[in-house]
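Dock zinc ion; give full complex structure.
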Amino acid sequence: VITKIKARQILDSRGIPTVEVDLFTHKGMFRASVPSGDPSGMYEALELRDGDKGTYLGNSVNRAVKNINERISEALVGMDPILQSQIDQAMIDLDKTEKKGELGANAILAVSIAACKAGAAEKEVPLYKHIADLAGKTNLTLPVPAFTVISGGKHAGNNLAIQDIMILPIGASSFGEALQMGSETYHHLKAVIAEKYGAHGCNVGEDGVTFGSIREGLDLVKEAINRTGYNEKIKIAIDVAATDFCKGEEFLPPNKYPIVSIEDPFDKEDWEHTKSTARVTLQVVGDDLLMSNPKRIERAILDSTCNALLLKINQIGTVTEAIEVVKLANDVPWGVVISHRSGETEDSFIADLSVGLASGQIKAGAPCRGERLAKYNQLLHIEEELGDHAIYAGEDYRQCL
Ligand code: PGA
Ligand code: ZN
């Protein structure tokens, strides 16, 4: 049973406060922390911040920490950590608000993840296996990583309007090989940029290298892929994050580049014009459009406004609800991308989540920086542990095809 829960404030990868929790059972201590992104709108779960301008510019999370140490702890101590949905429901009942604004989605998610880790230990199974059991899944799969190699939009101080250019090593034979392909491409890209624009052209943004215009960015990435020699084994994905800009750059002809996936090609409230857009062979990912919100997902399914779910667990707030929305997407069937946030921690939970839910895809940033590598390195551990049973999603990354 859960014997003690102790939370604290730590800093995320942007140096902004976030919540970390230690949850104790007789099996030991289980630690979890939560990421933070640029809020995409009023439909996502509420991240509770103190708002005291004199402390961390208003970003401290002492109230969320206090809510864990007092109210959540009181409600959960004595519960069996295996019972994930009951633990999550107990917190939802305690909170009573639709967006988890009373206790804070950051407080609730930290405890939900820590409980999930404790539940796995209780059963003496790996975390990804426990998650698969909770979701009723049997097909553990190593996801195709979507490595952000060029950052733009709100994530970089450059002129690139779109948010990310990513590479998907779908032709790799294992996750380990995919990571190698990603890393090699990334380093070739740095060299290509340095040759063309000098060393100063190559800065690391929140996720990856930062750079100029869409077409230039895609040309650079194509050149870097060519230098690796992997060519058609590596595909390109972009996150347009259209809501965040209105610069009106001419839309790309996808045939000039090996683009297989486009995230948020239209404004997130543009339901009218986006109807039926997803009836194309290209993967159209809903991130800002869906905000991991079940009601918005249902509407998008009905209107065919996208054909893949980007899941950010802190937009929904509990492990149980995250599993539920993935099931909604699986039923269509849609592709599923388990995603990090721009502000991350070294917690690697989403790596296990992506394997346990057999999402087929994970978006965890560039193959550089510790908090991004924490996820990719954990996938290496899982692949090693599964040994001969490890299956890399590869060409089947969308699952629905
Ligand atoms: P965010 O960015 O974490 O700041 O929301 C990630 C994305 O848009 O994919
Ligand atoms: Zn996005």
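Observed: The mean pLDDT is 92.
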